[in-house]
Every structure is written in C-alpha cells, then in structure tokens.
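Re: [ENG-882] Designed sequences occasionally contain unexpected residues at chain ends

Forwarding the minimal case from QA. Structure tokens:
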C-alpha cells in the first residue's frame, strides 16, 4: 500500500475565478475567506491530516498571494513549493509544469476550489488495488452538465471523459482530485497550454492507459459559483462539511474576533461574520458570508449572499442571492436580488435600486 508520506500533493490554483467576480478581482478564488479561513487552508489541512507532507502549488493568477499566506507551509505541518506559470498553462499544462518538483512516484492532484470529505487514504488504496495509471475521484450529482462526466465499466475502469457535455450519459462526474503515476505526468507535453480534462484524460484513454474511478458519497462541493460558495461556507459553519482546520463548536452562525453584533440582530443559516464587521440592530442574516470590515446597518436583510471586504449595506436594504464587491456602498432600502453583482467601490444611493414599487 502506498504510504501517504511518499506521495506528493499538487494543487491547481491558477484559474481566474471568473464566476466569482467581482470578489476574485482582488483575491484569487482559493484565497477567499470561507468560514473565516482562506479556502485553501481547509484543503491543505485535509492533505496534512491524511499524512501527505509535500505540496506543490501550481499558481498563475495573483500568484504572489499564496506564498505570502502559506510561506513554507510549516505552520500547517507541510512543505510547500510554489511553481508559477507566467501565462496560464491550463489544468494539464500546470500539472506537466510541476513535474520537476515531484519527489515521489505517486502524486495526488487537486483542483484548488473543491470542498470534500473524501478519504484520501482510501483513494490511494483503490489506485494500488486496481493497479491503475491514473485514478479519478468521482461523485454523483443532480446536474452533471457543469462538470466532467466520467462513465465507468462494472470493474470501475473509466470508459470516457466528457468535459461539460450537454448530453451526459451518467450522473457520475469528475470530483477534481486525481492520483497519477509519476511517469504518466512526465509524459504530458510541456511548455504549452493544455487541459487535463479535454486533452490529457481523453488521450490517456485512447492510448490504452489504465484509468480507474473511485466513487464515494462523502461531502462534495465545487466552490466556483456564488451559490456554491455560499452553500459550502454555510455547510462548514454548521458542521455539515468536514474540515480539519475548524475546531470547536459549530452552529447556526460564526462571528469572528472584533466583530460587533447589535442586540436583536438575527444570524442564522450558517452565516459567517468577518473580523471587525458591524451588524446593526434588527438586521437579519440568513446564510450570509460577511467578509472582514463590513458594516450592515439596522434592519438590513441579507440572504444567501456574499458581502466583500469593507462594504456597507444600508438600513433596511435587502440583498438576496447577490454578490457585493469590496468597499461597495448599498444605500438604505435598496433591493438587490437573484444573482445581482455590485462591482467594488460602487455606491448606490438610498432607495436607488428596487424590485418593488412600495416606498
Ligand atoms: N495552475 C493553473 N493553471 N491552475 C488552473 C488553470 C491554469 O491555467 N486553470 C484552472 N486552474 C485551476 C483553478 O484555479 C481551479 O482550482 C482548478 O484548476 C479547476 O478549475 P475550474 O475553473 O474551477 O474548473 P471547473 O470547476 O469549471 O471544472 C473542473 O472541476 C470540476 C469539479 O469541481 C473540471 O476538472 C471538471 O471536470 C470537474 O468536474
Ligand atoms: Mg471549479
């Protein structure tokens, strides 16, 4: 059986996080605060808890932020190397690009935006038992069209890899975590952009490589959209999603140091309130992700929304399924619903944007 201490972890964190704009204009997606910690802290702690010690991060967009936060990794009990693509190489190019930094014969490759409870030891064992060249963690989802669809035969051997197809033959999808034999990585073409999903996996299948699936039913969520980010954060707060990085009591809300919550404010649905934020009297926050330094005025209602650093939500404003950029100022009684996104620093005057006609 493979010893996790003899496995490298590779984390792909070079994407631009476009679906989470405008929050990702100032921070890369894997660094956005999730239950009070940069998202990657949850993944890194999970990797450390599994006994893997060496991590290579494949960075590109806002590359410098990762090293300033995690340094050499020693605080998490890890040794972290950073490999930066000047021009993003795509998921396959990024894996090929870290090959020179691998120390072992087996690598665990992770998408940097997935919240998961999968047992990494069991995934490695499955890879060994199947004598696979590559093993893909697979999960079942309600709508596979936004993911890589991965059918397998009755022995668990992958028969196709169909990235984001409108006509998925199964509800089994790529969960964004792979075990690679080192020599398979060494053979990925270097120095040009390519997609692991659209080129490398289909190419390996066509060449007759043994690609296997490891299916489980543990917690799983891709955090790449506002809706999923809000759900994943709330699940961490409520203890529905596992994370070795979170200790102590989990409950309906999580309020960080230096935040002020006025009497009569209601915090439910896995709401998280960042450091130094102020929540006014009678405000109602249900599944809200409130970054550091935000001010929510009296009587405001925030449901399933993300409020960026230092933004202000005026008295009796309503934000539902919205994303408010850093430093934006939403005037009193404004209503922002159904996927509304406000860009950083934008001010909307009192009553200046409404979905209803009452005054
Ligand atoms: N280094 C590097 N360079 N990283 C990249 C690049 C790149 O050029 N492009 C994307 N990444 C990173 C992103 O930062 C992210 O952590 C990860 O690769 C996956 O990219 P996403 O943009 O989040 O992909 P997706 O969610 O649309 O689809 C992927 O994940 C699904 C599961 O969550 C695919 O792997 C699907 O097949 C899969 O089902
Ligand atoms: Mg993703």
């Amino acid at each position: 059986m493979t010893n996790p201490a003899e496995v490298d972890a590779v984390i792909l964190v070079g994407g631009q996080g476009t679906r989470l704009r405008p929050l990702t204009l100032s921070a890369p997606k894997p660094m956005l605060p999730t239950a009070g910690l940069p998202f990657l802290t949850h993944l890194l702690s999970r990797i450390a808890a599994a006994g893997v010690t060496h991590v290579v991060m494949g960075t590109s967009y806002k590359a410098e932020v990762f090293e300033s936060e995690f340094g050499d990794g020693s605080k998490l009990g890890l040794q972290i190397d950073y490999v930066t693509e000047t021009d993003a190489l795509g998921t396959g190019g990024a894996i090929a690009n870290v090959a020179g930094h691998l120390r072992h014969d087996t690598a665990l490759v992770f998408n940097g935006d997935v919240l998961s409870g999968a047992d990494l030891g069991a995934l490695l064992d499955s890879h060994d038992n199947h004598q696979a060249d590559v093993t893909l963690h697979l999960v079942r989802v309600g709508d596979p069209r936004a993911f890589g669809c991965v059918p397998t035969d009755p022995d668990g051997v992958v028969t196709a890899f169909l990235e984001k197809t409108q006509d998925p033959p199964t509800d089994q999808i790529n969960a964004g975590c792979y075990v690679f034999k080192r020599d398979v990585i060494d053979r990925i073409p270097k120095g040009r952009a390519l997609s692991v999903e659209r080129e490398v996996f289909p190419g390996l299948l066509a060449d007759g490589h043994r690609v296997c699936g490891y299916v489980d039913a543990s917690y799983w969520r891709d955090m790449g959209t506002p809706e999923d980010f809000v759900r994943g954060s709330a699940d961490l707060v409520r203890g529905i999603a596992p994370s070795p990085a979170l200790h102590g009591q989990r409950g309906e809300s999580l309020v960080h140091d230096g935040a002020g919550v006025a009497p009569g404010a209601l915090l439910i649905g896995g709401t998280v309130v960042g450091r130094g934020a102020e929540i006014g009297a009678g405000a109602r926050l249900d599944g809200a992700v409130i970054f550091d330094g935000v001010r929510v005025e009296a009587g405001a209602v925030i449901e399933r929304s993300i409020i960026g650093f230092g933004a202000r939500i005026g008295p009796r404003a309503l934000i539902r399924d919205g994303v408010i950029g850093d430093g934006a100022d939403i005037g009193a009684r404004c209503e922002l619903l159904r996927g509304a996104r406000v860009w950083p620093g934008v001010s909307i005057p009192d009553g200046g944007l409404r979905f209803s006609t009452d005054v």
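QA comment: On inspection the terminal residues look reasonable. Residues 12-15, 58, 60, 85, 88-91, 94, 111-114, 147-148, 163, 173-176, 197, 222, 224 surround guanosine-5'-diphosphate-alpha-D-mannose (ligand 1) (CB under 6 Å). Proposing we downgrade this to a documentation issue.
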